[in-house]
Amino acid sequence: MNYLVMLGSDMFYGTNGIITVQVGNRLVEFLRIREIFKVRSTGSYLAVDCDIKDSDNIGEVKLVKSKPVVQSDDITSSFDIQETVVKRKDGSIIIKVEQLDLNNIPLPGYEPVKKALSLFPNDAFGFIMEDLNSISIDAVIKITGDFYAGQYHLIIRDDNSTIDGYKTGGNLLIGTQGMELTNRGFIV
To answer: What is the pLDDT of residues 35-55, one digit of tens each?
Structure first.
């Protein structure tokens, strides 16, 4: 399956829905889209696996198919057919994973991408549009929150992301593999 994963305004187009994190010299799975909601499939729902730790590398919550198997006392989690939400006691969102309407994919008409591409000669980046048009998308997944993925502190809002204090936004990465968070940032 291919997903469009949105982290703030950064878009990862055509990924397999797996996010791994560099821990030392190896990659450890942090998040996996296990299942997606399908309108014509009774009982289907967005199901994610996720292992979130706090700043001291102590587990806050571990989800398997969107259900907590390990959870700190001050954490609540909930899910429905298109959303998984984990919150702290004060109501702040640790992580929210949403499946958006597939008919409203913001690409290729996504305005920041169009604006960036318009700065270059007409055919300079035609291959980007070819790549976008050649990958079919099964679901659009939006991730927001304030959490640790391995050693990296991520604060993901609708309009930007911060990774260990460095802001990022408006990036487009195209690929058919998983997403990796390393000391160089996100790669596909």
So the answer is: 999 988 888 999 999 998 776
